[in-house]
From TrEMBL:
Organism: Strongylocentrotus purpuratus
Keywords associated with the record: Coiled coil, DNA damage, DNA repair, DNA replication, DNA-binding, DNA-directed DNA polymerase, Magnesium, Metal-binding, Mutator protein, Nucleotidyltransferase, Nucleus, Transferase, Zinc, Zinc-finger
PROSITE patterns per record: UMUC
Compartment(s) where it occurs, according to its Swiss-Prot or TrEMBL record: Nucleus
Key word Hydrolase present: no
Its EC number(s): 2.7.7.7
PANTHER family given in the database record: DNA POLYMERASE KAPPA, DNA REPAIR POLYMERASE UMUC / TRANSFERASE FAMILY MEMBER
Domain UmuC residue range list: 153-475
Species lineage: Eukaryota, Metazoa, Echinodermata, Eleutherozoa, Echinozoa
Polar residues: compositionally biased ranges: 291-301, 313-327, 934-944
Name of protein: DNA polymerase kappa
GO biological process, one term: DNA repair
GO CC term, one of those recorded: nucleus
GO molecular function, one term: damaged DNA binding
Amino acid sequence: MNTPPSRGLDWKEIHVDEEEEDDENWAMPASTLPGQAGHFTSPLSVPSSHQIISGNKDLQLDNSRVSSMDLNTNKAGMEGLDKEKINKIIMEASKGSRFYDNQKKREKQTTERINKMMEKLAQLTESEKQAALTQVDEMVRDLELSRDLSRIIVHLDMDMFYAAVEMRDDPELQEKPMAVGGMGMLSTSNYKARRFGVRAAMPGFIGKKLCPELVLVPPHFDKYRAVSKQVREILAEYDPNFCPMSLDEAYFDLTEYLERRRRMSAEERTYLYCSAEDHGQVEDEKKSTSDKAANNVSIQERTSDEDGYGSSGDYQHQSSSGVDRSLFTSVSKKQGEVTSGKVLSVPAEIQVKSPRRHGNTNNASSLEDSRSEAEWDEQPEQDVEDEDNTCGTKRQDGRFETFGVTCEEVVREIRFRIEQKTKLTASAGIAPNCMLAKICSDKNKPNGQYRIQPSREDVMDFIRDLSIRKISGIGKVTERMLSALGIQTCTDLYQQRALSYLLFSQTSSSHFLHISLGLGSTHVERDGERKSMSTERTFKEISIPSELYSKCMELCEALAEDLKKEQIQGKTVTVKLKTVNFEVKSRASSLKVPVRSSQEIFAIARDLIRTEIRACHPQPLRLRLMGVRLSSFQDASKLSRSRQGTILDMFAKKQSNNPQPVTTPTPDCTEPTMGLLEESTSNNSFSGSVGTPGEVSDVSRIQVLVPNTKVSAPDTEILTSDTEDGVGVSFDNKERVEKKDVVSGSKKAPEARDSTQSAVGVGVSVNRVDRSVSSDTELSSEQTFESAITAANVRTSMTISNPHHSQSHLEPRLPFCEDDFVSGRENEHSSIADREEHTKQLYHPELLSKSEIFNQENNQRVDKLLKMNSHAKSDEYGSECTSSVEAEAQRMLTCPICRQERAYSTLEGLNQHIDACLNKSAIKEMLHRDKSRSFSSSNNQLTKSGPKKLHSRKRSNSGSGSSSSKKKRSKSTPCRTLYDFFQKKDNH
DNA sequence: TACATACAC
DNA sequence: TATGGTGTATGTA
């Protein structure tokens, strides 16, 4: 390691004069590196593992240094820094923190991993190594044969993107070291800040320690998205199938375009250079563009945008309208949307002056420089008429640039146009494959480009001394692992190919082999379909279960919103938990039927969290982050079909004299409301006469909506599958034990379920459901009721693969108006004590006792529920009723929760409203009550973070609203409301 | 499938 | 005072 002379920590740029050659040699002292002498001659020679690793460990212990926290200088603008000094500052700022401790722990894990690998290595025999080498070399031959140098792949990367946008929009920032982000985390930094060691992924407070003058600018993602869109519009002209990797970088393939390029006239390749004085105009235009374009540009949306381009088909047309119109249009240009530009008709012989070239020209690619300068000629100043009248003014300083037909020229043109359009610079790499192009784009950053010529020799020359850390996909852990094998460069990687083959997985070693041969993907592929969607948040410590559940609910709501936007539903819910010690855990549960509503997701997520809370017990589960992810999406075709599965659709079908049963939805048809979900629960659940209040409300709703009496084939299928799944029949292994602990012995009280919080209300066993369904005959009143529910819920029919979840995910019900619904004004649970009990059930399910779970009140409630059901039946909510319900839905309806009367054009609308009422206001209310009563004296953190968090996300109007809704609920008689609801329907 | 890890941006 | 959020891939059991 190059130890720079020690200096005082004055706040100057922190760098050393000489280049540090020895990067981060984690695993061993340089002197022991195998590669130094013999390693290149013998591909099979490796260092002794124990020597290496233990030495490294000692080193770490002695210095109590956590190398993984060291500055990663593998970034443009961070060359030659005094890493020693910077790392010292970082370490001092971090030492003793939980983060630091965790990093230490993780580093130790990596070391152990390396040790294992080295043990494995030590056991390899020479013949094994030789055999591996033979095998690998065969692969090498194949790979060589398939080497494709014909593609011209470009990786374009905006320079310090977020920071650049901020600097552009606030020139005062240009002279200062600045970073985008906050004290918590930085997204990116400008080059001035990088000289101090301040970089992306560094917490702001450390950035401040490294550079006290550092200016922190909060991110403005809308702006970045808008700029990104502008850039993509340009890229799409060159490759409609370009592949954006993030807001600031993209791959594209110029191969086809270059064919056409050769046939393009000089005019078509000529662009006006817009000088600094023009910026105001551009700025104005940009602003309106930003406004317009500041919409979401998620992956999906991006795709559709780009598809728009791609499908426009006529590339030539697009291309011939090639210049950035933004440069020539007047400020008042109507829609402000910057479209692709217009080529100026400029005589080819008019030569143009080089565009302003800021940025680092010193390190610009020699190739680029030599070629481009030759074509960048001075243009005599003259007036230029904008023939297409897109400019509006004559330009006194009009200068033009005609770009050539080589790929370097095209890329330069693209960067030029990007700069003209956005006033931001980009760097690019050109190579025969993506892997190389990506590395190249970093080579001459900022504002430069670099090309690897498409010959094997050039590729291998480039690769030869390349640090493996430069390769995308090789991070610090892999770097350490490989370093332990004496591998730092791509040449090393090739030399040790036999070892990597023996010591790493097939996937990894194959990847390494590709890298070491300079091979990579030769086609630019769009991202495939999204595989998951998640929301996660970091917060001040939360350990109180009620707050954890509340946070979980927030996340589920946020996630459900996002899912809705993209019309996605999935079958696996994963909860991510990060403890205050930065330990990350994930817990997942898969269903057979996709879900997407916040209630459904919450039901599962909550259960997973509860399990964790219990696992920690009696210690609290102390979290600093929680995340909820949904994955295992069903494919798009199914998705579109699933939309049929709404209640309305069922009604519609019914009404149109469709002879098919009321409930035809397929298992993947889900647009469940809370109530529906709960219901399906009861079908799947162990049985349950437990029925906490929540259900009842759901049931009521369902009765209102789908009071059907018959169940037929489609339901049968679903329910059967549910039963086949064994849901509710038996637990296995420790899950069972756990449940038994909580529940009161499933034999005795099979209805009792561990989570009672909102436990299933309908008293039916799985078997009975099964029977009733399969018989498809007239059902008893209880069965009928259940069947009706089933009918309403087929699309939700939560078939649970994991019995553990069968309980919970089926009970997303919130406790609030449960009682109200059950017993109305004369609510059996109207006492404060009862209410608190319900709160407890929701937010402290882990605290419930058997007796709490299974009690007389619940039975009474269930009885009532069943009565209601039979009442409904006797009121002839038969098949006819469907249409009457539907008719009702067209009219004014009163929400049974908030008593608001509104016209609902769809039942779904009403359903959603009810969900909103139930969830959004009441959960807060309950939480508030819960907290104020149970925790007010015990935890000050609660007052700090709890309420704030509750209101932190997408629930802006919930605060006062919830309290008002609470009053309404308690004053009004929900039960009567519900009956009113029925009544009204009846009367009609 | 569940979970942990690694990685990128 | 204080170390992110989102998504993908992979290895292992």
